[in-house]
Amino acid sequence: MPIKSRFRGFNGILYKEVLQLMRDPIALFFAFFPPLIQVIVFGFAINTDIKHIPAVFYNQDQRRQSREFLDQMRNTQYIDFLAEVHSEKELANALTGGGKYVGIKIPPDFSENLANGKPTNVLVLIDGSDNTIAAQALNVTSNLALRNSLEELLRESGKSIKDIPLDTRPKILYNPDLRSQDFFVPGVIGVALQLSTIILTAFSIVRERERGTLEQLMVTPLSELGLLLGKIIPYTVLGFLMACFLFFIMSVVFKVDVAGNVFLLLALTLVFIFTNLSIGLLISSRAKTQTEAIQIAVATLLPSIFLSGYIFPRFTMPDIFYAMSFLIPTTYYMNILRGIILRAAGAVDLGLDIVVLSGMGLLLFLLAVKRFKKQIS
């Protein structure tokens, strides 16, 4: 078949789709506003830098050493003592009632045992109903107790902590301040782009079907390739503008700058957008109404949130879900986003992700063409 006939009707569909977009401010509103809200809300709301954990204490010792121990906890900025209680029952009730996550009980012989070099037990009650807060509280209290024990042993031997022969010096690369926004904001951009581009494309076809104009288009001498390319190119441009806008918000509002090649990031974002638009075309070939289209689109979003590595590390997942994550395009785009934005990774470093994402996009588009060819027949 001549190349020209393969793209028959492309110009007309493209012109029609651009005009329809320009005359539909609601579509433009939903193209930019929901992703912007997603990025801003999740960018500020999701924060794994857990500090100032609400706590209470029960100090039965009331001497200088016990007060200094409590002050050391306060000075970590991870523990905030909101109240002092005066019995074990009050200590337990404070955690049971909620709002307090840590309870510290210092025994009456705390200072005496320290002075005599005897072991002493400090009871640390931690509310495990929120495992993230509990893990942070356990880490802080355990490290503080370990440091205090080490200092006490060294003091007895006439040495200081500076005299320890082994000294590890960790150096954190790429995100030295361990800011949550540096990790989550690029990820939420990927998720927001996925949902908005899939819905926009699916709506474009389904709206034609609901109005009865899709059948009219199918009986005209259009090629399937010309029809689908004419449909998705305007949304590719719209999605690309949306992505540029979200990257701008990421840099200006959240102070997350792109460490790597910006042009490589934008080029691979185009590939990701094309892949999602192809998914939208597949959805539209199945959905009969816009409500059904949005339900399927949301159903495709949930695996991307939980299995792509957006929130949880993929290597911690059970084997079956880890294997399923390889089937999700967003998985590869997450690696690309964080690789370029945070680690300044290049095309060679991300070669596998680029090849797989591009292959998925091409395969999904060809499947969409085949489905529409079957419908036209």
Keyword list:
single chain, 2 domains, 67% helix, 6% strand
N/C terminus separation: 17 Å
H/E topology pattern: HHHEHEHEHEHHHHHHHHH
Strand content: 5-15%
Largest sheet, if any?
A: 4 strands, mixed
Helicity, as a percent range: 55-70%
Strand order of the largest sheet: 2-1-3-4
> Strand tally, please?
4
Counted by DSSP, the helix tally is 15
Uncertain segments are none
List the helices and strands and how they pair.
Elements: H1 3-6, H2 10-22, H3 25-45, E1 53-59, H4 64-75, E2 79-84, H5 88-96, E3 102-106, H6 110-116, E4 123-126, H7 131-156, H8 180-211, H9 213-219, H10 224-252, H11 262-286, H12 290-307, H13 319-325, H14 329-343, H15 351-376
Parallel strand pairs: 1-2, 1-3
Antiparallel strand pairs: 3-4
Can you give a write-up of this model?
- With 377 residues, the chain is mainly alpha-helical.
- Helix content is 67%, strand content 6%.
- It is built from 15 helices and four strands.
- It has helices spanning 3-6, 10-22, 25-45, 64-75, 88-96, 110-116, 131-156, 180-211, 213-219, 224-252, 262-286, 290-307, 319-325, 329-343, 351-376, and strands spanning 53-59, 79-84, 102-106, 123-126.
- Strands 2-1-3-4 form a four-stranded mixed sheet, sandwiched between helices.
- α4 links the parallel β1 and β2 (79-84).
- The mean pLDDT is 83.
